[in-house]
Amino acid sequence: MPYPPLPTPRAVVLLLLLSGCAAAPEGPQNTVQVPPERLASAGARASLQIQRRGELLRELDTTRYVRCVADALIQAIPAAPADWEVVVMRDETPDAWALAGRRLGVTKALLRVTGNQDRLAAVLAHGIAHELLGHTGAHITPSVAASLEGDAALSNEAIAAIGGASQVGAGFAYSASEEAAADGRALALMGAAGFDPAAASLAWAQLQAYRVREGTSGERPPPMLLVHPIDRGRIQAMHTPAAAVTTAFDAARLSGRRPDCGTLEESER
Predict the structure, then answer these.
(1) 36-62 pLDDT tens trace
(2) Is-contact 102 124, C-beta < 8 A?
(3) Is 23 exposed, middle or buried (0-12, 13-18, 19+ CB in 10 A)?
């Protein structure tokens, strides 16, 4: 089915002003810490379950495009880069997730909504930031922690707690403070990688505009927007990044760090 053209930045802003903001319950207060190795193992199991429930995208040009954007961000992490899993699912709902254990996922529909490498980088960087900040292991209750033992299939509650909430429809949202911290870290990562941080506010506004365009503004929005609530304050904060972010972006460009991941194939638009 042909996908509608993306609205102009001005239209995005108008749609955002007209839209509401649905809230989902924030993470549980009664939480426990889980060893990193157990979290990583649970993330691997959760990623495999998500992939088995859906269908992996097989178009090599598209998966290379996503991997190129992710790799540029990963290389910019101020520590020894680690291996990250990146999967692309054939799904018509715009979505992205970051599971404990450095496991990222996006849907085909998200690529269409973001439209270019800088806006895709904004969403991927946000997920990477949640993982780097420890948020994907910060909402684990004692019962979930117990369920992470062994090799049994994980419950939806467990998958949600380690970063896959949108994939299982759980009523869970990152807190405003977690979202603000992830946005700040994501902007810094984008700038250091050579992606334009100015694309972040438009990327998230595009997702909100999708919600309005598809007629879901008064109903239940796409799961990703429940897990990562969007409001005008959050968009505005991204629109005016810290001076250090702009400086890092300028330095990256001057040093020749300019990711060139290409564009989506016409068949994938």
Answers:
(1) 999 999 999 999 999 999 999 989 999
(2) no
(3) exposed
